[in-house]
Amino acid sequence: MYKILPKEIASIYTRDGVRLDADIYRPDEEGEFPVLLMRQPYGRAIASTVVYAHPSWYAAQGYIVVIQDVRGRGTSEGEFKLFANEITDGADSVNWAASLPGSNGQVGMYGFSYQGMTQLYAAIAKPPALKTICPAMIGYDLYTDWAYEGGAFCLQTNLAWAIQLATETARLRGDQETYQALLTASRNLPLNHPEILQKLTPESFYHDWVAHSQPDTYWQELSPKSHFQSVDLPMFHIGGWFDTYLRGTLHLYQDMVARANTPQNLIIGPWAHLPWGRKVGAADFGKLATSPIDQMQIRWFNQFLKGVDTGLLNESPVCLFEMGSNIWQDLPSLPKPNQKSYFLSTTGLASIREDAGILIPNPQFPIPSPQDVLVHDPWRPVPAMGGHAAMPAGVFERSQIDCRSDVLTYTSEPLTADLSLVGEVLVKICCQSDQDSYDLCAVMSQVYPDGSVYNVTQGYLHCQDGKNNVTRNIQLQTICIRIGKGNCLRLSLSLACYPAYAMNSGNGVVLSSTRLMNAQIITLSVSCDGSQVVLPMIA
Fold it and tell me: Which parts of 144-269 fold into alpha helices (H)?
């Protein structure tokens, strides 16, 4: 470990003359060192320390660490436009960092969320000095991985983030009135009707994201995926089982593995977006779940920025935390599991009685079942609890939600052996609505012998042409879990998961008081004929 010099502040002028400010942490030692760069919009003193060690710790490992305010944030000049300037600004910043006094010209980047996105945008420009990146919890396709899930707007996370950024903008502008109003709103999330953003911050990205409810050219131009096909860098991909952006982490990793010639490593822990610790919601995954990312990143950077043979290239590139057993699994690649289906059966009272809806594994004959009827009242939507899309995220006891009459539950017999699942869970539901549009929320849980119910994974789907009798496929969040012998599996179905996702009015999304006023009661008929849960089984 090196001693560290006092923090210094330095600036770069971008190609269009905008000043970007950064804090620089250096080892107190002669010689040249690689540079670690983080570009972020939250005020550089924070430096992602909500999940990473302080930059001074990284500097003490023998790196020059640069934490930069992106354009229009912190003390950097210019106008902040979400993601719009990060390709050119990222390239300029990498080139500048590589030329700093004491730099050996080798640059790596790290950071999560927006700081993960800035790595992808910088990599698109292919600055020669950028040798490796460690993107954590990112959106690769911004429409499917960030703003929308299953075609449904991710209301709570998008609204909270928009208000956070807008509040910071008001602070930087010295606008006390707007700052105070937005601060109050942020402390009272969820807002039922986010008109406050339209009133106070008409320039917010939020309005564009709501307006572009389909994967059109707006998203194609903004998304890293559209510009990433020729990028080939060693990458250390970092995700969490309860992170709202896990889809993005996996999509990027899978794309790179399919075409890259450079090493691609992946780790997924039992974490939400933050923090990265042993406890997520009501679950404690043990001491092994505490984040190893800081040490792993230093080892990665030593390999690719210092040329040290750390042994990384001889080890399994995939590391998954198996919830339930609470141990890490080292694997040569993402597993290709076998599929096992549990079929739905009912007495027709699955919204009323716990014993009325059943999950049956691989029945040998058709299951005669009446329909279940599900009624959604917009006045009292089914609330979100845990999972990957709600705030707070994670695992929670949800029996009080499953007892609601606007939730259908289907429960298996107790497992006769441990059940290991790795991969994507798919729920297929045959249904028909009395309205043109509706949403479907599917939650898979495990029911313990004492009757307590804890969520495992969930998914959400925005459905059009609701009056047609069709099979809807709901993709649930990817998981890695061992469910213990004696526990039961449960599928819970509802027509809302509010405010994690915007409510459906019966003919469209509810994002204003007017639309809520016109929201309809939605009645859905669910047929068990062919409806099933498809599980990714590992022997």
Answer: 155-173, 176-186, 195-200, 205-211, 217-222, 246-259
